């Protein structure tokens, strides 16, 4: 049984990016054991590389890391990505030796173990690493495989069931599979963490059974560009946006997790020794409004969450609250562990693509905060629309041109050692603003090709069903 | 492979003049009749010897379309040489040379050596630009000139190597300030620093971990060992710039 599972998996994955070692190769171990074991699988630590679909040689990888020029790298062979999805990246302006963003894509047929059906799927993921490239790299190499393992173990009956009245719909099983896969990925990273800390954000976009799933953990973001409108499909997870979750946890497990060093309460402003005993504005984690309290000595502890928006931090240290890794991360000077406040759980949205009235130029954009820090959703959508509009060169080229324009729109130009963006404003003036000095990665995935493929697949399925009903003696083993 | 100098080249000119083919001919000694449209930038590298010294040429092949012009402009930085290419069978590619030259002069180091190349010399029957016109343009603007064929390989070696000789001479004459320019063997210096840091780090981890060996990565360019000290590596990289 395991043998069959493994070979089906290998087929699905293409095995190119797999460096996995199963604990046991025994045939007696059942698939469910493997799936539910949650045992972190030992994983090789790989040397630095860029996404495999870029096809870079070692030499090119070196050159791509030129911090002074920050060349925008696009795939040499556009057909390496499903539907010629667009991709472009550039390295940071010098904050780390290597580009710590990663991306990967995979397409194949998902073989449902308990039926004879295979369902085509396509998956894209993007990661933004911090404090080293390793966690993002490991995630790039393994996350898709883990998601596939989870998907394969969903009973076919359930997976394909999108019936309105069903208590559990297929999509809920798919979302659950992605959620569990993210959790397992984090465990694998922990297992590997002897190499040192570091972590990464994650975005996954999955096309399956006519639906689009957009999962995100961290402050990378996927947006949908549909006709003249655009909207985010994932939510940024920063200390600010997750203030409630993080502070509630600190509030409930204060002694254990805050070690008398931090306060989970939020105050209107920073208070000092002299304020003790006076009435101050504050809020507890579950509150949306404000209240008064008499300031005590313990309230003078450092705030669990400080700063606002992009500059907010947990324990003054980390600015992103979901993703993989950071298992050993401690708050500076205090030795208090930060990981309990970080979550690997993605938020997942699912959309029925038939309901969107898609046209050829409708896309989703996946990007790391290198883009979103300086380019709004609206600006990104408008840059993309402008690049996709012309008839030539063909759309396959323009998807990558769009990704390249987006990266350029965030990277800007260098003046000496600084990077600036120049934008012509409506009144003819030029507005100058700081460009992104972070790693920037952008993927532009067209939605229409999947819809066409899916419709075709549905048609073929129906024909086959009719066929098998009419010829009853055909055996399912005959293939 | 060690080398004494690293020269960065950039290849510019209208789309379709044969930039990517010239690069392929020089690095791989082959001609590919259909070449995909270049959207971004592509890199090639080859080692050459001048005056008994190993020199590595790192060549940036850019996209020629107007739409990519602003991105291409950002790639001149640090280039010691440029190959400005036109197609002898298409006059408009010759007519656009002035704009290319303006771009190059404006965005590069003033000492960058520019080689003017009239490509597709094998298509003499369809020639629209006379050899003399190319020579005159080069003379007027102080460029070196050659006609090449990426197809037959005629003059391709010479174009790349003569440009390198020119750069090399400038270094010998002290026109280029070695300490401030990228053609300095910067990557080589970086590699040594990387290896050193990696070595120290591994030594540190191994002794700390009490005999548990954490496998060092073997390739000198592998960043494995400097993962945790990205800051140091990068300040090195930035420092040379
Ligand atoms: N006959 C001939 N054709 C060439 C030569 N160099 C390039 N070509 C052709 O010109 C076209 C454009 O070449 P390419 O290298 O892609 O141009 P680029 O846009 O400047 O990079 C291709 O179809 C090549 O086959 C040459 O020296 N002789
Ligand atoms: Mg080209």
Automatic annotation (TrEMBL), chain A:
Any GO MF annotation of the entry: phosphoprotein phosphatase activity
UniProt cross-references to Pfam families, sorted A to Z: PP2C
Coiled-coil annotated spans: none
InterPro entries tied to this protein: PP2C (IPR015655), PP2C_BS (IPR000222), PPM-type-like_dom_sf (IPR036457), PPM-type_phosphatase-like_dom (IPR001932)
Domain annotation PPM-type phosphatase: ranges: 86-447
Keywords, ordered alphabetically: Hydrolase, Metal-binding, Protein phosphatase
Cleaved signal peptide residues: none
PANTHER family per record: GM14138P, PROTEIN PHOSPHATASE 2C
Family, as annotated: Belongs to the PP2C family.
Annotated protein name in UniProt: PPM-type phosphatase domain-containing protein
Natural source organism: Trichogramma kaykai
Automatic annotation (TrEMBL), chain B:
Subcellular localization(s) per the UniProt record: Endomembrane system; Golgi apparatus
Protein family: Belongs to the small GTPase superfamily. Rab family.
Keyword Lipoprotein: yes
Single GO term (MF): GTP binding
Name of one Pfam family that matches: Ras
The protein's name: Ras-related protein Rab-2A
Lineage of producing organism: Eukaryota, Metazoa, Ecdysozoa, Arthropoda, Hexapoda
Keywords assigned by UniProt, alphabetized: ER-Golgi transport, Golgi apparatus, GTP-binding, Lipoprotein, Membrane, Nucleotide-binding, Prenylation, Protein transport, Transport
SUPFAM superfamilies: P-loop containing nucleoside triphosphate hydrolases (SSF52540)
Organism: Trichogramma kaykai
UniProt key word tRNA-binding: no
GO cellular component, one term: Golgi apparatus
Compositional bias (Gly residues): 225-241
């Amino acid at each position: 049984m395991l043998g069959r599972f493994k070979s089906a998996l290998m087929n699905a994955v293409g095995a190119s990016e797999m460096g996995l070692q199963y604990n046991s190769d025994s045939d007696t171990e059942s698939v469910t054991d493997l799936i539910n074991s949650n045992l972190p699988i030992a994983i090789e630590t790989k040397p630095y590389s860029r996404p495999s679909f870029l096809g870079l040689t070692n030499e090119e990888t070196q050159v791509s890391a030129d911090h002074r020029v920050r060349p925008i790298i696009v795939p040499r062979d556009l057909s390496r990505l499903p539907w010629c999805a667009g991709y472009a990246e550039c390295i940071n302006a010098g904050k780390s030796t290597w580009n710590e963003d990663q991306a990967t894509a995979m397409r194949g047929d998902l073989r449902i173990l308990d039926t004879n059906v295979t369902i085509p799927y396509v998956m894209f993921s993007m990661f933004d690493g911090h404090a080293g490239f390793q966690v993002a790299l490991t995630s790039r190499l393994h996350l898709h495989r883990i998601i596939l393992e989870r998907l394969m173990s969903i009973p076919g009956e359930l997976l394909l069931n999108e019936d309105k009245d069903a208590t559990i719909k297929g999509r809920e099983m798919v979302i659950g599979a992605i959620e569990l896969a993210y959790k397992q990925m984090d465990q694998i990273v922990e297992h590997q963490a002897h190499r040192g800390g570091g972590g990464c954000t994650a975005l996954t976009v999955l096309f399956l059974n006519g639906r689009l799933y957009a999962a995100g953990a961290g402050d990378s973001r996927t947006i949908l560009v549909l006709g003249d409108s655009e909207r985010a499909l994932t939510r940024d997870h920063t200390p600010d946006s997750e203030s409630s979750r993080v502070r509630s946890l600190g509030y409930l497990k204060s002694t254990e997790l805050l070690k008398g060093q931090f306060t989970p309460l939020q105050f209107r402003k920073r208070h000092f020794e002299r304020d003790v005993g006076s009435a101050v504005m504050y809020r507890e984690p579950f509150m949306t409004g404000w209240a008064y309290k008499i300031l005590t000595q313990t309230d003078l502890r450092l705030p669990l969450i400080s700063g606002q928006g992009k500059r907010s931090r947990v324990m003054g240290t980390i600015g992103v609250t979901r993703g993989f890794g950071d298992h050993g991360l401690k708050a500076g000077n205090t030795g208090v562990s930060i990981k309990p406040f970080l979550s690997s759980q993605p938020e997942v949205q699912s959309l029925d693509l038939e309901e969107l009235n898609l046209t050829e130029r409708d896309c989703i954009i996946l990007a790391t905060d290198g883009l979103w820090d300086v380019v709004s959703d609206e600006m990104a959508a408008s840059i993309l629309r402008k690049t996709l509009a012309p008839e030539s060169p063909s759309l396959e080229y323009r998807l990558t041109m769009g990704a390249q324009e987006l990266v350029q729109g965030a990277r800007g130009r260098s003046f000496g050692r600084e990077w600036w963006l120049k934008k012509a404003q409506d009144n003819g003036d030029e507005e100058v603003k700081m460009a992104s000095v972070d790693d920037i990665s952008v993927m532009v995935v067209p939605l229409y090709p999947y819809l066409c493929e899916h419709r075709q697949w549905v048609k073929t399925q129906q024909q086959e069903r009719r066929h098998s009903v009419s010829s009853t003696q055909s055996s399912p083993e005959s293939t | 492979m060690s080398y004494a100098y690293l020269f960065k080249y950039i290849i510019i000119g209208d789309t379709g003049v044969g930039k990517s083919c010239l690069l392929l001919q020089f690095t791989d000694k082959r001609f590919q009749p259909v070449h995909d449209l270049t959207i971004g930038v592509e890199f090639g590298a080859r080692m050459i010897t001048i005056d008994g010294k190993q020199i590595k040429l790192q060549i940036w092949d850019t996209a020629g379309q107007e739409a990519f012009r602003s991105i291409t402009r950002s790639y001149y930085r640090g280039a010691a040489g440029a190959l400005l290419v036109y197609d002898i069978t298409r006059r408009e590619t010759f007519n656009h040379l002035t704009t290319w030259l303006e771009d190059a002069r404006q965005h590069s180091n003033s000492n960058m050596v520019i080689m003017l190349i009239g490509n597709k010399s094998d298509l003499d029957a369809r020639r629209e630009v006379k050899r003399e016109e190319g020579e005159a343009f080069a003379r007027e603007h102080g460029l070196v000139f050659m006609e090449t064929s990426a197809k037959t390989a005629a003059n391709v070696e010479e174009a790349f190597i003569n440009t390198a000789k020119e750069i090399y001479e400038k270094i010998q004459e002290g026109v280029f300030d070695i300490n401030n320019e990228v053609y300095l063997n910067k990557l080589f210096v970086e590699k040594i620093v990387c290896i050193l840091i990696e070595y120290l780090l591994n030594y540190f981890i191994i002794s700390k971990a009490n005999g548990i060996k954490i496998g060092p990565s073997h390739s000198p360019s592998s960043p494995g060992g400097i993962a945790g000290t990205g800051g140091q590596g990068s300040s090195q990289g930035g420092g040379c710039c």
